[in-house]
Write a structure and sequence with these properties.
alpha+beta; 5-stranded mixed beta sheet; disordered C terminus; binds zinc ion
């Protein structure tokens, strides 16, 4: 396997997270309530990509989008519920899911690898669906000029 394929592998930081660590996180941040929340909850569209996991926690009519990144020294997280004082139960629930139901996580690296086998027309159709789902994604093929930093402009003006 070449070095450039490494991003398709699950990082060792993410791989080494264990249930005991999550239980401590649960106790410290949500008084241990996240275990029940995880057991009774529903998580959809769970993905893993190198050192990052994401998923949607469904709660009645609400959906919370969670993203967690495991770096060498820390786990950082982001949840659409907007809770800022520590870690919310949605984040802890996704971590419980990671250590218990890892097989349910779609590896984005594997999906990307499968793109190599698709022909151009299929790729265009996939891209079209991505834009339909979120038109903001057009920035990946049509960068807005304002996105460029001044440093870049200066560099190209020289
Ligand atoms: Zn949350």
């Amino acid at each position: 396997m070449s070095i450039k394929d490494n991003k398709y592998l699950i990082s060792k930081e993410l791989d080494s997270i264990n249930e005991r660590e999550i239980a401590i996180l649960d106790q410290e941040n949500t008084d241990g309530s996240s275990w029940d929340y995880y057991c009774n909850g529903q998580i959809i569209q769970a993905t893993v990509y190198n050192n990052r996991i994401s998923g949607i926690i469904k709660e009645l009519a609400d959906e919370f989008h969670v993203e967690i990144t495991a770096d060498e020294n820390e786990i950082s997280s982001n949840c659409s519920c907007g809770f800022k004082e520590g870690v919310c139960n949605h984040v802890v629930a996704l971590l419980y899911s990671w250590v218990n139901d890892r097989e349910d996580f779609v590896n984005i690296g594997t999906l990307v690898r499968r793109l190599h086998d698709k022909d151009k027309q299929e790729l265009i159709e996939i891209t079209e669906r991505i834009f339909e789902n979120n038109p903001g994604n057009v920035r990946f093929i049509n960068p807005v000029e304002n996105d460029e930093t001044e440093i870049d402009n200066d560099f190209f003006d020289v």
